[in-house]
Sequence to fold (240 residues):
Amino acid sequence: METADFARFSGLYSAAMPRETFDQELAELGALLDEEARLCQRSLDGALEALIAPESDAAEAVVAGDDAVDRVYLQVEHGVESLLARQSPVAVDLRFVLAVIHVNQHLERIGDQCVNIAKLSRLFVTQPLTPELLEDFTVMGNQASGMIATAMQSFSQRDLDQAESLVELDQVINERNHGLARRIIEGGFDESSIEMPLRAMLIARAIERIGDNAVDIGEQTAYLVTAAFREFTDASHPVV
Fold:
């Protein structure tokens, strides 16, 4: 290739992307994350429905629906890779792209936890959960769903106060989880009933992890706004 031709060819890749195009691609990444979050909330709603009615098709719908979460996850991954290959973002733009990578991972994990809950729900067809456990899971699940919405709103609006509020919201889930565990440990059970409380603890732990991932998304908002990463340490303090 002649030198002049090579210069023209390489110039196609070194030329800066127009700012409006760059902003549009950043906005598209944000929109994909919002779509992924909505899919996760739908999966969580389905998982809770499966716990209430384990004989229904709700669990199968959640498991099948995880493919949609994974597709959006991959779209975000490929979008970030493409953007970084063609542009070198700096300052707040770079922080946004890095935060997108982490938020995408947290949402994908939320989707996986919903699948875990749905699969566990199938085990309660012959031995349904007690009304008390169902109440715990409903409160915890609804709180987790609200936290996903709050986390994503804080991220899209760059709202630090809203992001930090996730710590307090998470305490509702943590307190229910600890109370459930105490009742199971202190209540005692015979060999014929040991499986149900153990499965219940796994479900509670999965919902707790969904809440923790929502808090982690809030931490990414804090990073995006302040340019300094910090953990919302109160989120990991034990409940007394």
User: Anything to note?
Assistant: The radius of gyration is 22 Å. Residues 1-14 have pLDDT under 50 and may be disordered.
